[in-house]
Amino acid sequence: MQTHSSAFTMATLHIEGGPRNLLQALGLATVTLFLSGAWPFVYSEVTEVKNVSPSHKSRFPSVCPAEFQGKCLCGEVPYGPEGKLTYVTNCTNTNFHDAVMLKELPLETEVLIFTGNRIPDLPFNVFGTAAMYNRLNTIDMSNNHIQSIKGKTFHHVKFVKKLVLNDNDLYIVSKDRHSRMFSNFNHLDELHLKNAFTEKVASSDYLNNLEDVLQKSQLDNLRILNLEQNELSSILNGNFFCSMPSLTEIYVGGNRMTDFRFNSTCLPRLELVDLSRNEISCLKNSTIHLLDAVPGLEVNLTGNPFECDCHLTDMYRWLATTKTRVTDKERLQCVNRFHPQNVWKLIKHVTLYDLECPLKKTDFHDHLSAAYVVMVLIIVICMIMVSLLVYRHRQAIYVFARSWFQPIRNKMKYSSLDKREAEMEV
User: Fold this and answer.
1) Which of 275, 227, 215, 219 is nearest to 247 (CA)?
2) How far, in Å, CA of 280 to CA of 333, rounded?
3) Fewest CB atoms within 10 A around its CB: which of 67, 183, 215, 422?
């Protein structure tokens, strides 16, 4: 308060010199107030981390250790939906080609944003081996062209709750698979792997390895799993998610799935399944039963190319009666159908009688071919039965045939004798 009053006293003295000195007086007061107010803030930032080793300590807010080459920002900023003051180390689009500077990550870091770099292989102990990052709760390493994460890459991250690896080029096949790459995240709550895997390997080839990685990482506390935009065509193993029993939200949107399988009995806390923007033309009965088996579940089906024909009948009835919450159910649309008037029509505006399938020419030929096959089979069976009857009653048939043909033979014999006698008389 003494500094503030002296600032205003100095301003008053200058004002007494006349209006010409008014601006100078105000400027002097402002500078004095800034120095008196800002310096304690800077001092507090320095003294707050006085127990941190010099190599990890930032001298002023927004200044990172020298190893970050002046490309990053370190300090407390409003962060998250509530704008809470959070210590963030932000290296966005810094184009680093290695991650060696992360060994000197400020210990007070709560959120690490390390994106827009080109680091194919994350090294062992990316945060070093000595430092303990007890405040670190979020790591975002999106869009770094990461291809390999070793089993010992992440150490001292047991308090991290959110890991984001979106938009990378991960290989998790053969020698490039490290099944315990997430095993040190003891309290991981969210794992984001959107568009995280290389497109050079088919999803069917790495999906089993991904299941092995998730299982051996022991993510018992994981609540949110994001696998969007990974070219997944199907998840054939219904137990794929069972190694993560705390899951409440599963995101598999933006893939190429035509159906979805999961074991609801091993996911007692499941609340949301996002299947949006896939290639689902209709939900199968087996999938419908799985969804209905989870109380209070919400499922997102928006952006799928539903075919409003006879194959949609079961799903159509399910949408009208299910207790499962279907996201934006009123906005689900028909894309392909038998009746042209159903195209781009909302499913809720389609009647059950409109869900018909055309009789294709191939179907007609199939029916015709089937009729021919049945007819031939009937003829063959009849011939076999007649042959068996003939063989069984061959003696009776022989006697009957002989008794029936004998008079004819006798008549023919007598006719031949009469003809011979007539010739002899001539």
Assistant:
1) 219
2) 12
3) 422
Q: What is the pLDDT of residues 281-331, one digit of tens each?
A: 999 999 999 999 999 999 999 999 999 888 899 999 999 999 999 999 999
The residues, any chain, with a CB within 8 Å of residue 61's CB and separated by 6 or more, are: 42, 45, 74, 75, 76
Contact 343, 334 (CB under 8 A): yes
Return the number of other C-beta atoms located less than 10 Å from residue 204's C-beta. Answer: 12
208's tokens:
């089993």
- Residue 149 — φ and ψ, nearest 5°? -125, 120
95 vs 101: CA distance, rounded Å = 13
Q: Considering the entire predicted model, what is its pTM?
A: 0.71
Tell me the one-letter amino acid at 373. Answer: V
What are the structure tokens assigned to 250, written together? 């599963």
| Structure tokens belonging to residue 169 | 């080029």
Indicate left, alpha or beta for 32 from its phi (over 0: left) and psi (-120 to 50: alpha): alpha
- Which residues, 6+ apart, have CB-to-CB distance to 110 below 8 Å? 79, 86, 87, 88, 135, 136, 137, 138
